[in-house]
Automatic annotation (TrEMBL):
Chief site of localization: membrane
Stated family: Belongs to the ABC-2 integral membrane protein family.
Pfam families attached to this UniProt entry: ABC2_membrane
Membrane-traversing stretches: 49-69, 89-107, 127-157, 163-188, 200-226, 246-266
Localisation per UniProt entry: Cell membrane; Membrane
Keywords: Antibiotic resistance, Cell membrane, Membrane, Transmembrane, Transmembrane helix, Transport
InterPro entries given in the database record: ABC2_TM (IPR013525), ABC2_TM_bact-type (IPR047817), ABC_2_transport (IPR000412), Nod_factor_ABC_transporter (IPR051784)
UniProt lineage: Bacteria, Bacillati, Actinomycetota, Actinomycetes, Kitasatosporales
ABC transmembrane type-2 domain sequence ranges: 48-272
Organism annotation: Streptomyces vastus
Domain of life the protein comes from: Bacteria
Topology of the protein relative to the lipid bilayer: Multi-pass membrane protein
UniProt xrefs under PROSITE patterns: ABC_TM2
Name of the molecule in the record: Transport permease protein
Length: 276
């Protein structure tokens, strides 16, 4: 009497479908990392972009430190010293420039030169390209903020204690300004006009939002509070003034502007150059 052979032992390993899913996920992560590395290499190989992005905020906060370096707190700075006020606001300006300004100009230039059109013809998914750009801008912003905080520390400014608040503020602010930069880039007709349009929007916002001097006019503060820069400034200030809790109102305004920028970018973004 022959006995039937026992059933083969089933391996406890995961099913082939799950393993394929893991491989696909790892492939997507590798693509994103590769795109971030490409954006970083492109940035660091452009000395002018590096110098302007990092040197300007450091230079501004250094000059402000020489002028307002005293530790005396004043009502003019809402109970802060000059450098306690300017360190977070200049850090906020550096994030704005690295995300909104730089991204809008880069996308406009790449579209006009045909780089985006060629990229669209490759197998690289569009979402990987934009996630890589976003992560690159966040990394540049973090370096900028660390440099500005370092200069502020030389003038006696205590580093922020609410690190979860400042990280959340930086990531949300960088993402929102990147979305706004992509939205503006979708409206720009040529690379030559991109810097002018970017600065035309950025400079008034920076000044009415109290980035370079406090604003005490109630009506102007109310209007600026509905725009993205002032809420970002206030959220950064909250991280440095040892305020407890999260500035949900300011973060909500930032998120709303980021959603608006993303909506405009999705509806109006073009990969190919506009016809002359």
């Amino acid at each position: 009497m022959t006995l039937s052979s026992p059933a083969p032992h089933m391996s406890p390993d995961r099913s082939p479908a799950l393993r394929r899913g893991d491989a696909v996920s790892r492939g997507r992560v590798s693509l994103v990392i590769h795109q971030i590395r490409y954006e970083q290499l492109s940035f660091w190989r452009n000395p002018q972009a590096v110098i302007f992005t990092f040197l300007l905020p450091v230079l501004v906060v250094t000059i402000f430190g020489a002028v307002f370096g005293g530790d005396e707190r004043q009502d003019f700075y809402f109970g802060l010293s000059g450098m306690e006020y300017y360190t977070p606001t200049i850090a906020a300006v550096s994030v704005l420039g690295a995300c909104y300004g730089q991204l809008a100009i880069v996308l406009s230039t790449r579209r006009q030169t045909g780089m985006l059109k060629r990229l669209r013809a490759t197998p690289l998914p569009a979402w990987v390209y934009f996630v890589g750009l976003l992560a690159h801008c966040v990394l540049v912003s973090l370096i900028d903020v660390v440099l500005v905080i370092g200069v502020g520390a030389l003038y006696g400014v205590s580093p922020p204690t609410q690190w979860t608040t400042i990280v959340l503020t930086l990531v949300l602010g960088a993402a929102s300004f990147c979305a706004l930069g992509a939205g503006v880039a979708s409206l720009v007709r040529s690379a030559e006009s991109a810097p002018a349009l970017v600065q035309f929007i950025q400079f008034p916002l920076v000044f009415i939002s109290g980035s370079y001097f406090p604003i005490h006019a109630g009506v102007l503060n109310t209007v600026a509070g509905l725009l993205p820069v002032k809420p970002f400034n206030e959220a950064m200030l909250a991280s440095f003034t040892h305020a407890t809790g999260y500035p949900w109102k300011e973060l909500g305004v930032l998120a709303a502007w980021g959603a608006l920028g993303a909506l405009v970018a999705v509806r109006r973004f073009r990969w190919d150059p506009r016809p002359e």
